[in-house]
Here is the input.
Amino acid sequence: MYQDNPAAALEALKKAQAIPLNDPILAQPGLAGLEKATFSQGVSPTSGLTFYDLELGAKSLYPVLTPLRNVIPRVPGRGGIQAAWRAITGINVSGMRIGVSGGNRGGVQVVSTADYTASYKGIGIESNVDFEAQYAAQGFDDVRAIAARTGLQSLMLGEEAMILGGNTSLALGTTPTPTLSASSSGGSFANGTLSVICVALALDGVINGSLAGGIQSTITRTNADGSTDIFGGGAAAKSAAATVAVTGPTGSVAASVAAVPGALGYAWFWGAAGAEVLGAITPINSVVITGAAAGTQTAASLGAADRSTNALAFDGLLTQALKAGSGATIVTMPTGTPGVGTPLTADGAGGIVEIDAVLKQMWDLYRLSPDTIWVNSQEGLNLSRKILQGSANSAFKFEFSAAQDALGGGIMIRKYLNRFSMQGGSVLDIRVHPNLPAGTILFTTAALPYPVNNIGNVMQIRTRQDYYQIEWPLRSRKYEYGVYADEVLQHYFPPSMAILTNVGNG
Here is the structure.
């Protein structure tokens, strides 16, 4: 009836929409409840007749950062239990003069040589998928493939840390006894006696240590096949306890310890004598103690042994450089102010005094120039600030766009000029490493400037067997995978490395 009268049809539709759902007709006997919806939206994403908008495939939201592993060449080994090589380390080391008299021969030079070895180590990690997990993931993702992939990625992450600072041979020994100085201000200690114990840490101890979880001394690991391995977790033998009288109620204590060769961090325990608790982990050899320790691990639980080395690891770059007799340039910054240490020093001309001193020494002793400076994020920021002191006006970079009020600017130093090289000046890349502790700076060299040295790679990973995966035979309703490699890090010339350590923040 409305087909020829659109206006009347629209008016009738408006009247119908105006009738409420609780119209009396719906309340008649037999029609009760019709004013309610038959279906309604669920109260949760998985209740009711509700579509679950789940994207297929799990997202991998974790970093796999392995900068050293990515740039160090990998070469095959030839069997045996270790890689071995010999080197000529010096020619005419006695300084024989080269002048000759008429008709006579010259003097005979003295050449120095050395033998080197590096034992192969197996590395590996396990993962598994039970049958029910595979059933549940059908149509969503391949959990068996994920297990294999994450196993390889985990192995690479562990390998990166070992390349940087694996330690099988550099024992830190017993940590020296701390030196304490009490103050009646700056803290919350009442009158009493405070006892302090310190533990020096290798890279493994720094990476895996925390106030909440404590530091690892002796590690006992139960493996996937039921076997057990026992090895060190990167902690030196703890120091003897030092005590000091504190005057409250706002007392504090400054503690320092003689820097331990090879240490990259220090764990501090304090409290009543015999009940010292972990309260701080520092990248420098001092701390200011202002209140009760926040951790839960006790010094008594560590035992008395030096567990700084790991017999299942190979020596990484830091360890090979820090070992006595390596020839690497090692500079340990002075203790300085407790809790603050000694930061780097800007020279006011776009350089850093301590870095220039390292580069000069490497040139003076070995006539070489490194090409990369590896830093922690803290030192990366400090380097930028120090370099900009006295030269900031020329270091800013601004980017303008056509959009109104759009201005971008920022400063981050990515390179450093080395004034000591055959070219009269060379440029070092500054790279942030995810595993390098604060307070430590590593210099590396990718190529030696010496002719005909028979060294294709200054450092390389030599593998008896490169990465491989095993899917183990079923022994339960679970798929089990292992990802492994058998390798060692070779560094043919440790003097081409340098380390600045115990660097204060600032």
Observations:
- The radius of gyration is 33 Å.
- Residues 394-400 have pLDDT under 50 and may be disordered.
- The first strand starts at residue 74 and ends at 76.
